[in-house]
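Below is how a single chain appears once it has passed through the pipeline. First comes the sequence as given, then the structure the pipeline wrote out for it. We keep one example in the README because the format questions we get most often are answered faster by looking than by reading.
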Amino acid sequence: MQKLQCDVVVVGAGPGGSMAAKYAAEGGLSVLLLEKKAEIGAPLRCAEGVSKKWLKEMGIEPDPKWISADMDGAIIVSPSGHRFKLDESHAGNEVGYVLERHLFDKALAEMAAVAGATIMMRTSCTGVIKEDGKLVGVYANRMGEPLEIRAKCVVAADGFESQVSRWAGLDTSIDLKDMDSCLQYRMANIDVEPNYCEFVLGSAAPGGYLWIFPKGNGRANVGIGVQGTKCKRGADAKYYLDKFVNEDPRLKDGQILEIVAGGVSTCPGLDDTVLDNFLAVGDAARLIDPITGGGIAHACQSGMYAGQVLVDCAKEGDFSKAALQVYDTMWRDSMEDKLVRNWIAKEKFATLDDKILDDVVLAINDSDIKEVNVYNLLKVIKDKYPDLMSEMEDLF
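Resulting structure:
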């Protein structure tokens, strides 16, 4: 077995892992970035939407190479077909890009490589190394070659399933109500608005929503998320998505170029994201927006925080849970309030029937809302339907 040594080993070269590797390497640490797949960013498991504001905050320059379409706004569609169209003047910080995600992920990994991280492709983590109860590294397999990688800290960036977090000792269990079953088709030969993302609410996607994210030239990501507790048929996501595609005249003559499926967590983050010599970032830490299911921004931001804290820990020679707790505090200070608020809102909206959702969309349409975000939408609904929102007073 080949034995390797480094300061930090990062498992998973998605956005969270690449950002953690980048910032740790920029701080002078030796970093190994492990990726089990043959290609970074593929196969795709993402609707590919990000906000423009977030990219700016992360210092990531938009690059036409990985931007598929530039959005002008969004359209919210009620169960009976009422449409609320948001242009950039109302959508504010939520307006963004639809990416070519595989190219975006490669760009972030390249940034990590330029910073000094070593990327190891087709390298699967097979377990963690513990000595006297202390985490000291990981076991891996690189194209049939077993590896023993010793590190001062292990970073779990291996996504929703995150085996590494469980092996290290984190409780990653999740309630079925806090998980969506998702399916997405990349479609061609369809006729949708090219510069507006579309979100369809109600019983067409029980406990979740349907989406259309345009990618230009008659192409789009068309997908669905169905709350776990509302899956009754065994393949509910496919049943509802196929029904939607077949009944929408804009889509029914389209052709499917790619199918992606997977689970998405809709809880407000893990209770703990650090242990001695270990931390988790992005989807591995359940840092996904419970309403939208979006996680690219959270992954990048948490990865950045992780890399910065690892550099500070290295200076002190201390990678204990107490020292790494700074990372946990940083991401919570930045995003936990919003994640919890959106989780509570998600819980409430999952109980609403189509009639109420129709009324809600109409109420929003009639409002004089200056900037559309989850908080402002909730305020409009509260003013129009105070009884509906009585259980959510603490959100305000």
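The chain has a mean pLDDT of 92.

See the next section for the split statistics.
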